[in-house]
Amino acid sequence: MGLLSDPNRRQVLTNLLTRMNTPLCFMCYIAGVSWFMGLAFEPFILRMYTSENAMGSTMVDENFVYGDRALSYAREFSAHGKKAGEMPVEWLVKTMSGLGLETHTQTFSRTLPFPDEIRERYMVKGTNVYGILRASRAASTESIVLSTPVGIRQNSQAAGLLLALASYFRGQIHWAKDIIFLFNDHDMIGMEAWLEAYHDVNVTDINSSVMEGRAGSIQAAITIEISSDVVTSFDISVEGLNGQLPNLDLVNLFTSFCQKNGVLCTIQGKLPRLDGETLEGYIHSLHTMLLMVLKQGSGKSQGDHGLFLRYHIEAVTIRGINSFRQYKFDMVTVGKVFEGMVRKLNNLLEKLHQSYFFYLLPSLSRFVSIGYYMPAFGFLILILLLRALDLWIRLSKVPISTQDCANENVRPSFLSIMTPIFICHVMGLALYYVPLLCQGRATDHFPVSDTEAVVLTSIAIYVAGLALPHNTQSGLPTELAAHGWMTLKLISVLYLALLLGCITLINFSLGFILAVTLIPAAALAEPAPHSASLCCLPLHRTLKALFLILMSPITILLMCIYLYHELAEYPITLLECWQLLLQAVAESILDHHLYSSIVYPFVVFFIYPCWLLLWNVVFWN
Amino acid sequence: MAASLVLVLVVAVTVRAVLFRSSLVEFISERVEVVSPLNSWKRVVEGLALLDLGVSPYSGNLFHETPLTLYLFHFLIDYAEFVFMAMDVITAVALYIVADDFNKVVFRKQRIAFEFQKYAPDVITLVRTPKEMYHIPLKVALFYLLNPFTVLTCVAKSTCAINNAVIAIFILATVKGSAFLSAVFLALAAYQSLYPVALFAPALLYLAQKHYVLVNLHSTTFLLHLLKYAVMFLGCLMVIICLSFFLLNSWSFIPSTYGFILSVPDLTPNIGLFWYFFAEMFEHFRLFFVCVFQINVFFYTLPLSVKLRDHPMFFMFVQLAIIAIFKSYPTVGDVALYMAFLPMWNHLYRFLRNIFVVTCMLISSSVLFPVLWHLWIYAGSANSNFYYAITLAFNVGQILLVSDYFYAYIRREYHLIEGLNLKSKDGKEAHVVLK
Fold it and tell me: Taking each helix axis from N to C terminus, what angle separates A574-595 and A450-466, rounded to the nearest 10 degrees?
């Protein structure tokens, strides 16, 4: 208690905080960023290990031999698909029933809020087909899902493989869990419809028919995407909706079977390297980790598996890649990998829960757990807290003589702070609701498509928000200037810290991306000092404003898109980047409405208003 | 002032009415922070259904409200939303009058102290003026009605709102000096949720002060006063409990309400300290630790009543806070009740040391509650430790808040007597240090 109540010691502490504030903040930023960069260095982080007992100790041997059958099914599937012009539902039902599976179909329909131009769909109607292989050894209380998104052109090999696996599994006696073979139409929309119907909930206004057959609680799911007869490697993607990740043991399971069968496996399309300690090796894993951070931060599901995670089902998407490498694997090896994985999952006694749920993967052999990466964020958030403390100390140091007159101004100052906060949040609400409401009107008056109308209106409202400070400050009493902006900054800095803290717990990558960019902006935002000479005032202000714009949410998105393509070794020009930005905005709005992803509303309702508050601080008179 | 109070009431009722009609009701009434097994509306409805079927509502392990509440809603079930809004309004108005009355008392005491020259000469900045005290009652009402915690409690129809109303009326009766009404409502409050028994001490001291009884355990007048109040309180409690017995014709409500509160069998997570601890503990230590945890609530009453003998209103506030922190099934409604008293101690602001840190802690942990709950229960990626960490942070924040106010109060009293600019023996400026 001595430290808390002794005024001398407190004085020392506060003096230290105010005098050393800027260097401390700077050091924290450097520490945070370098800690994060250090996470990719292999000697610093943990090696992967399987925690789940039921999967670690048991042996399975894979005898899958139906490779040719898989390919013939695939050919038949694509032939029937071409004939029907859509998913060959009847053929699938017939084939699966013929294999002895309990086969059901499920129809669904969904109208998108506006047309999806990338996938060219607006009013979606589709049918999911799924067959349940009933376990011979247990009641149907638990199941494993093998799924593939099917279209006309893509994934026919995966569909063939699934059918071949079904026919092979049918003859085996090990099964203690039902196995569901799911062919979902219209990729994620179909998957969402199926999952909602399976769990008998309706969270996203999708219309779907009643589910006819179920197989108990789903323990794990694997989504397979293969579009070639032979593969050179497998790529695994783990990032799900809202940045949720499956249990790390599922990733371990995949790597261990790839190793057992000698198949090359990659993550983020990056080959594994053995020289983790060297500089090249480090840069390689840093690239891999940054790619994961960017993908996870987008909050988009990187495959159909992402929707399972919301229902407490561990799931991954595995893609077969056919590149120019010489050594290729046929369907027999591919089938063996999946057979082994399903066999091990079949051994599970309880849901996967032993291993980590919060991690980053710089490679498939090492992982960064939450305890390792959180300090990086902790250092960054410390800057905001230091800034807030500094402001608080400066605010409470108002001399006593002026406190009497300040007392009378308590109410106007309270109101003058509330006005910008209120207006900024109204801007956020407008940004959320207006684009979709006036989509029809925009297409009537301007030569743009529906999607463009929504995106461009959003950007217009976003930019319009920047013009607001000139409106809000005129209504404010000027004598409270210094007091006012410090209070507003204090509030916005704490608000930002709270928002970042919350989102980091849910989606670390998004939180970290926002923290790295927004925190310097927040720490540096302040109006031009009154002592500055007249000629230097506009310059000062312009510099601050430019820096803030550089760190605004939409510029962050632009930079992320650019960085992503640089890292993925697919560089793009600025114009393409702009096109991709428009697409990304449209997609995030669609993701929110279709799968209730939280990234878009979070940015629009909270981050954007908070950033506008900082903008207000810069333009405070 | 009355006009502003009416305005605040209208705004508060509107906010609640809008929320009652919104889609958030479902979400709010499921939040573990807002409703506990003791006061959840779902359970009240279940109890009513059981009562209508002729089954004793206490026969299962579901209903833990008192029989009187059950019968209250037996008649008012169709007007439940109005009842809860009315409860909040009653609480706010009662607290408003309490603050108003208490202001007058403080002012009179201060004048007497000046006339008898009890205060040091240089404490003019510490003296409270009618001008700064003018808005306090309104602020108290505002703090209660527009506190998000209260709004959530009301929208979730947690019966905690009723407990708060009863306690507020009890405080009002005490402040007005009516020993009988005070005892009646204290008995009702204790009957409702047991813990308000601890408020007996501050009420007794307040009434003694009001009736100019010197607080001294050797004086017969004080002992008589104590006896009178105790008899009235116990008598009322007996009457109410017997009434409950006659309503149900069985004593089964005692184990399933008070037994439930005291032995903490339901370990649903909440904002309190009990659930995690008892979920983790070896079963054979349970009884011992239940006793330790429960005694904790009442442990501070005696030392506080010695220290705050002359400041029963502040004592009341501290005791309410202690109950809200250490009770077995706390909800945010309990927190809201003592937070409504904070504007009454506005003048302590200059002596508060950690108010900034504590405010940040309380706000951030109340926002993090739902986030970590989501991660634990829905996403399945976090676990109970994450949630409990926030519970701990929230409670530490509350404890720091109360101890900060306590320290500030004591320090102000010290400065009033000793003077603001203290000199040490060698003539230098001195500081007050708590060690």
Answer: 100
CA dist list (Å): B402 to A51, A431, B27, B272, B333: 45, 42, 31, 16, 17
CB contact under 8 A, A506 and B434: no
> Are residues B331 and B371 located together in one domain of the fold?
no
Least CA distance to B361: which residue of chain A? A498
Distances (CA, A) of B63 to A212, A258, B25, B29: 38, 55, 21, 16
Domain-embedded: residue B111: yes
**B263-296 CB burial, b ≥16 within 10 A, e <16:** ebebeebbbbbbbbebeeeeeeeeeeebeebbee
Residues of B in contact with A8 (CB under 8 A): 431
Nearest CA in chain A to B372: A505
Interchain CB distance below 8 Å, B380 and A312 = yes
Comparing CA positions, the residue from B397, B229, B406 lying closest to residue B317 is B406
Same-domain status, B18 and B93 = yes
> What's the domain count of chain B?
2
Domain span at residue B356? 349-419
Instruction: Evaluate whether residue B44 is within a structural domain.
Output: yes
Chain A contact probe: residue of B346, B381, B407, B433 with most A CBs at under 10 A: B381
Among B348, B371, B393, give the residue marking a domain's end: B348
Report ipTM for this prediction. 0.86
Distances (CA, A) of A118 to A114, A204, A436, A580, A590: 12, 21, 18, 11, 11
User: Which chain A residues have a beta carbon less than 8 Å from that of B367?
Assistant: 498, 502
Distance, in Å, from the CA atom of B81 to the CA atom of B35, rounded to the nearest integer, reads 16
Q: Min CA distance, B434 vs chain A (Å)? A: 6
Q: What is the pLDDT of residues B364-388, one digit of tens each?
A: 999 999 999 998 988 877 888 999 9
Residue B434 lies in a domain: no
pLDDT tens column, A331-390: 999 999 999 999 999 988 888 888 889 999 999 889 999 899 999 999 999 999 999 999
pTM for this model (two decimals): 0.90
